[in-house]
């Protein structure tokens, strides 16, 4: 499974994440992951995902899609056991979810799902 690694810059105790448009390699990785998950839709992630406002106990994950899509994320300490969930009802092209109950100085894995619970893309981040 391919992952998109999310990097953040630590500045004066707060994390500033740099928003980037998805590169051709990232879009290819997303398409490969979608095919592997059986996703056959016209939704593409066009920016992000970006991890922002990272603290020792929480983070905010944002991304944009080209069409209205679900805002669903699973996350946890083991990429094979993502036991925590963040979800916003409805659909959007601007996605933002708070990831809570995190441990300090810990690497987390996340998985952005489509409406049917299929894996759209994955990534990692580390809390402060």
Automatic annotation (TrEMBL):
Domain (Fibronectin type-III) ranges: 45-128
Superkingdom per UniProt: Bacteria
GO molecular function: acid phosphatase activity; metal ion binding
Signal peptide (from-to): 1-19
Recorded coiled-coil stretches: none
Keywords, ordered alphabetically: Signal
SUPFAM superfamilies cross-referenced by the UniProt entry: Purple acid phosphatase, N-terminal domain
Name of the featured protein: Fibronectin, type III
Gene source species: Koribacter versatilis (strain Ellin345)
